[in-house]
Every structure is written in C-alpha cells, then in structure tokens.
Amino acid sequence: MMAGVVQEGLGAAMASIVATTLLTSGSATLLASLIGIPLGARCARRGGLNGLRVVVRTLYGLPPVVVGVLVYLMLSNRGPLASLDLLFTVPAMVLAQTLLVLPLVWGGTWSAFDAITRDHREALDLLGLDARRRLRIEVGLVWRGVLNGVALGFGRAIAEVGSVLMVGGNIAGQTRVLTTSIVLETSRGDLGAAVAQGGLLLLLALAAMFLVEGVLKVRPKRNSGPAPENQVPTDVSTPHSEHRWSRISVVRDETTVLDVDDVVVRGGEVLVVMGASGAGKSTLLRAIAGLLPDVDGVPVPRGQGGIGRVAQHPVMLTAHATAEVELVHPDRMGLLAALELETVATRPAAVLSGGERQRVSLARALALRPSVLVLDEFTSGLDLATTLVVEAMVRQAADGGAAVVLATHDLAQARRMGDRRMLLDAGRSVDEGSATAALLLGEPQG
Q1: Domain containing 171: what range?
Q2: Is residue 150 scored above 90 in pLDDT?
Q3: SS3 for 204-235, per residue?
Q4: What's the CATH code of the domain at 260?
Q5: Residue 225 has pLDDT above 70, yes or no
Q6: Taking the CB of residue 342, how many other CB atoms lie within 10 A of it?
C-alpha cells in the first residue's frame, strides 16, 4: 500500500513537471511569435537590413546563462523590475525563454517573408489594408515557412536549462521543468531517472514536431461550389480629374531606365502606352501607380477609390477568386460573373491559368472602385472573345470617370481601346510622326 502511495506521488510530481515544462516553453514560444512574426514581416518588407540580419542570426547562439543573468539582474531586489516580485516564478522563466527564443522566431520568419515577391507586395500596397490585415495575408502566403520558424523556437525553448534554472530556482511543484529535473537527478546520482526523463523530453519534442509536420501537409479545405450570387456592379470606378508630371525619370544602377516629359492622365480617358520589350512601359506604369519610391504617383489614396492595378505577371493573395474580391469588398462578387469567372470562383489559386489570374486580378482591382486603373498587358493570356469582354469592363471604368493607363503590344487592342497614345523607345517618348513610331504602330514607311 505504501509503495502504491509513493508511486502515485511520483506520478503526480512528474505530471506537474511536464505541465510546467509545456506551460513555460509554450508560453515563451507564443510570446516570441507575437513579437517576432511582425518584426520578421516588417524587416522583409523594408529590405536592405543586412546588418540587422547578421545581428539577429548571431543571437541564434545566445548562451542561455547570459539570458539568465540578465533576467536575474532585472528581477532581483536591486533590479528595475524588483517590485514585480517575479524571481523564482514561472513568469520569470517564461520571460527568460522568450528572450532566448525571440531571435530564432524573428530570423526564421524573416527568411520566410523574404519569399514574398515584389508583385505580391505591390498588390498589397495598393489595397490600403491596415497593418493587422496585411500581416494576416502575408502569413497566409508563406505560412509554412512561418510555422517552421515557430517550431524552431519551440524546439530550443523546451530543451533549454540554463536560464530557467537561474531565474526559476528548480522549486519542486512550482518551477521545476524536465530539463532542470534531469540536472537534479544527475547530481543525485540517479542516472536511471535522468535518462527516463530525458526520453520523456524527447518524446514531447517529437510529438510537437510531428504535429507541425502534420499541419504542414494539411491542404486547406476549399469550397468547390459556385460563387455567391451577386448583382453585377454598375459603378466600377471613381471619377478622377487630371494629374500631370512635368518629368518622370527613373535611374537604376547608373542606367537611365525611363526619362519622359509631360505625362498626363485624365479621368474618363484610356491612355495606351506602347513600345518594344524593355522600352520602359512597365516602369512608367509603376511610377504612375506610386510604386516607385523616387517618383510620386497620382494624388489619390490607396484602398477604396484609389489605384487599381493588373501587373504584367498577376498574382493572387488568397486561396481563390472569391476570397480575392472578399478581401477588397464582399458586396462586389458580381464582378466575377461579369468577367466570366463564376465557374472557377472557388478553384484553388495554384491551378488557375494565366488568363484566369489576369481576370481575377482585374476583378480585385475593380472591386476598389478605382479612380486610376493601371493595366500592364492585362489580356495577353486571353482569347479574343474573352478579351472583348474584359475590355468592355475597362471601358465601363473609364466611362465612369476613372483614368485608365494601359500598356500593350497588341496593335488591334490599342486601336480599339485608346483615346490617346504614348510611344516609348529605350525609356524615352517617341514622336508619332517618326520612323520609330511607324514601326511601333505597324505602319513602316516605304
């Protein structure tokens, strides 16, 4: 009977140790994630922070005893946080492990967010999302990499001993965790108990990693039904007056990419930009949209009533077409039907064709009711019948007062759509009466 009581007591003690281990490491990983994931996203967006990246990666190897000393000094009787009376408590251990894990989560998620392309970032910029919604979309784009960074942090937290021993005190029933218990059993000479607890620790870590691996292999469920019924919007744009640049000059690596004078966009008008590949058309459109830091864009806010854009290589920010429109305005689902996308509205983004992505990108842009619509080869993947449908939607936006700037190689489209033309060659504007213009317009002179 006495042996049973002893075994029951040992089992309760071990359960307490395991619970404290998971509470401490789990809480530290959660706190480090709440701080590190936004930091990783912000650093990846900004770019050019190589010095800071080196510092963060150096802190991957931050010695636990150094963190323990730092936290001990802060919480001790003479420390700045002495009034909190946290020394030798679980919160003190959580604080120490959070500081230890934070560089791993920060650096790991920073690398994950680096995978987000420039096109994705520019699409997000023009939507005018608040910081929380933008972070949620970015995490959704690279969630596997983010989850790996968090798992790396948890792995270090659950195996850490130095700092929690220093600030927690290894108090039985209060601050004892598996790693400090292993140290204690080893010091007592009970190597069997130490090995058993080490095995239990490995099993907990293994279970956590299998859980992460299972989540990584999960494919989100997608509704395969039709898109929600919604009336086709009649107001797909916001009126814009006029904006003029006396000069737009873009220099990259000491090479002039674009240098044009007297650029004007007007509401209710389609400006067609033409030129050979590499002439600077895409750069001009990005400048007009305000996506180049050294060139001011049109004076309209981002988000609703701002700038809509279809890039030359359109990207999707969510799982499917319906979610793309919902991201901007859930009451504008009718745009999918207007662009003949209702049959693929909930089809996974990864399996959409290039032409379907172009139309989804246009639906997302029109859901903003843009005052300026910037289109870069937006029908290059479409057949003629679908192209005419899409062009009709763009003309509707222009008729509603939006300024439309369209870059294309399609001479027939330029003639159908253009109210005014701008010809580019090697980054500079070309007079329509020149021989170069005649070649660009398919009208060579004999």
Answers
A1: 2-217
A2: yes
A3: HHHHHHHHHHHHHHCCCCCCCCCCCCCCCCCC
A4: 3.40.50.300
A5: no
A6: 18
